[in-house]
Automatic annotation (TrEMBL):
The lineage of its organism: Eukaryota, Metazoa, Ecdysozoa, Nematoda, Chromadorea. The chain crosses the membrane at residues 66-86, 98-116, 147-171, 183-203, 223-241, 248-266, 278-310. InterPro entries: SLC26A/SulP_dom (IPR011547), SLC26A/SulP_fam (IPR001902), STAS_dom (IPR002645), STAS_dom_sf (IPR036513). It is found in: Membrane. It comes from the Eukaryota. This is STAS domain-containing protein.
Length: 352
């Protein structure tokens, strides 16, 4: 109703790439403990969590579990072989990608189940018991609205920005347009319905979104399939995943985001194209990685807006255009910026 989707205009491609690449680093760090078995490492969600995590990870690297690390290496190699070798081979005959992820899940569950409490048991971290069923709907307590209204507003803004950032990332890669107001409506409807079931505040998952895109999904019908499977699991099939190693899940998530990690390396190309856009990416990425996603996002948006103000105050001179020539007796004045209070004096001084 308020056409608030216009806010997404301020999310430039460079800011989105910096945000998603920085968030991908957080995801990688959060999965390292499961992939290596290193103990006594903190979470990365708090401020400067990545720095503390890396310090503790290096200090406790001697606690690395060899069998867990070996399982990680085998799983990652299998996934990369599937993505880089097998998929291109089978692509001419079928649109369906080779289901390496599904095979790894089935094989690892079977291996851990039959090897449990035997000499072949690798003692990998497993998912364990999964609670079955779902809470009955209930009316939320509106008496606490005043206590949580500001926190809820902050969560809503961050959730929306991250959601739109991921949507823009996927839309740019697959060359289609998104309706930002429709995304607002979808998020709002989801949170209203979820509030009657005691759910946490929802939003887009970087790992799940990228994994779904890499698996070749084309529409929201895939979500219906996922929901159906989750309902089946919640009401009876949950014990089947008890022996699923967490290492396998971590490897699937990390490999699915390999393109986001490569974008970090490719950012040097952006420096040659546009210095300002490169620094928008760099500032956003650095702030997200070193501080956290929420504050890093705010810093990235403020810095991007600051570059807009600075660029609008200085017009390009003739020295920036090699083909430009001055004609005797004629002066052409061009001001490459919108005229407003911040650059009005510069406009007059440049003309004089």
């Amino acid at each position: 109703l308020l056409n608030a989707g216009l806010l997404a205009v301020w999310l430039s491609d460079q800011l989105v790439e910096g945000l998603t690449s920085g968030a991908a680093v957080h995801v990688l760090a959060s999965q390292l403990q499961t992939m290596t078995g290193v103990k006594n490492v903190p979470h990365t969600s708090e401020m400067f969590g990545i720095v503390r995590f890396l310090i503790c990870f290096v200090r406790n690297i001697r606690t690395l579990q060899l069998h867990t690390f070996l399982c990680t290496v085998i799983c990652i190699l299998s996934l990369l072989i599937s993505k880089l070798i097998i998929d291109p081979i089978v692509k001419p005959w079928t649109k369906t990608k080779f289901p390496m992820e599904f095979l790894l899940v089935i094989f690892s569950i079977s291996l851990c189940y039959f090897a449990n409490e035997t000499p072949l048991d690798l003692h990998l971290q497993i998912v364990g018991d999964v609670d079955a069923g779902m809470r009955a709907p209930f009316l939320p307590d509106f008496n606490k609205t005043g206590l949580i209204i500001f926190s809820a507003f902050s969560i809503a803004i961050v959730s929306f920005v991250i959601h739109i950032a991921l949507a823009k990332l996927i839309a740019k890669e697959y060359k289609y347009q998104i309706n930002v107001n429709q995304e607002w409506l979808a998020l709002g409807t989801m949170h209203i319905v979820a509030s009657f079931f005691g759910c946490f505040a929802g939003g887009s998952s970087l790992s799940r979104t990228v994994t779904s895109a890499r698996l070749g999904t084309k529409s929201q019908l895939t979500t219906l399939v996922v929901v159906l499977i989750l309902v089946i699991i919640a009401y009876g099939a949950a014990p089947l995943f008890k022996y699923l190693p967490k290492t396998i899940l971590s490897c699937i998530v990390v490999v699915a985001m390999k393109e986001l990690y490569l974008k970090i390396c490719w950012s040097r190309v952006l420096f040659q194209e546009s210095t300002v856009d490169f620094f928008i990416f760099l500032v956003t990425f650095t702030a997200v990685v070193l501080i956290n996603v929420n504050i890093g996002l705010a810093i990235g948006v403020v810095f991007a807006l600051l570059t807009v103000v600075l660029r609008s105050q200085w017009a390009e001179s003739i020295g920036h255009y090699r083909a430009a020539m001055e004609i005797s007796g004629i002066k052409v004045f061009r001001f490459d910026a919108p005229l407003y209070f911040a650059n009005a004096e510069l406009f007059l001084s440049s003309m004089h």
